[in-house]
Design a protein that fits this description.
By secondary structure, the protein is an alpha+beta fold. Helices cover 19% and strands 20% of the residues. The longest helix is centred in the middle third of the chain and has 13 residues. InterPro entries: DUF3027.
Length: 247
């Protein structure tokens, strides 16, 4: 026999190896022998362990060309094509969503976060001053500020979210935020597109809203004639007032 034929025929050796490491009664019938690289052969056995439907035991065998001794390389439990496996691991940073942070949680930005740039290179606005580098060196002001990409990402997110023009409440509003007396203007590059709602009765109180957003709490909102309180006609007979008896 050739080396491969000896390994392929070593089913009993492979079963003895898997029976030694597996729990009793969880090894099924021999399924196949697969020739691997470097002259090795893997024997596959079915797995009957509850919860592992579609999995199989794999025993890797090899031997030296000038020896009849068979070496057991490893015994592993592997998922087959129809096996139920856990989803692909997603790093925590990629799974976290807005609102997931609890008191005490820390979420530092990435070192190469495109949303941030050193303040001395971009400034808080459009200004570029020669002393920003020295201010950073001595710890004056913010070390980091929004990059142009970061501002655009924030603006797009706000505009497409619940504080933008496509929100259902904005679609039904009679007026837009740009004409509302409760809107507080922002300073900086985003001031041309957004403001902050200061109406304590509005859903967006304290939030950045786009100029073309809107809601029913607009400062110019008025009730229709049918919805306004109706003035009652004068009473015909006064049964409410108190009678005063004169003696």
């Amino acid at each position: 026999m050739s080396v491969d034929e000896k390994l392929i025929a070593a089913i009993d050796v492979a079963r003895a190896a898997v029976d030694e490491v597996a729990d009793a009664g969880v090894v099924g019938e021999h399924q196949r022998a697969v020739e691997d690289e470097n002259g090795m052969v893997s024997h596959h056995f079915g797995c009957t362990k509850p919860g592992y439907v579609g999995w199989y035991w794999s025993v890797s065998l090899s031997r030296s060309p000038d020896s009849d001794a068979i070496t057991i390389n490893d015994v592993v439990l592997l998922p087959g094509d129809d096996a139920i496996v856990a989803p692909v691991w997603t790093p925590y940073r990629e799974r976290i969503r807005p609102g997931d942070l609890s008191p005490g949680d820390v979420l530092p930005p990435d070192e190469d976060d495109v949303r941030l740039v050193p303040t001395w290179t971009a400034g808080d606005g459009e200004e570029q001053t020669a002393d920003r580098f020295f201010a950073r060196e001595v710890g004056l002001g913010r070390e980091w500020t929004l990059s142009f990409e970061g501002r655009e990402m924030a603006a797009d997110r706000w505009h497409e979210g619940d504080q933008g023009p496509d929100a259902p409440i904005a679609q039904q509003a009679a007026g837009s935020c740009i004409s509302c007396g409760f809107m507080v203007s922002l300073a900086g590059p985003l001031a041309e597109r957004f403001g902050v709602c200061a109406n304590g009765m509005a859903n967006d109180d304290g939030r950045a809203v786009s100029f073309d957003h809107g809601c029913g709490a607009h400062s110019g909102a008025r009730l229709s004639r049918s919805a306004a309180p109706q003035e009652l006609p004068p009473t015909v007979f006064d049964t409410v007032g108190a009678d005063i008896d004169e003696f």
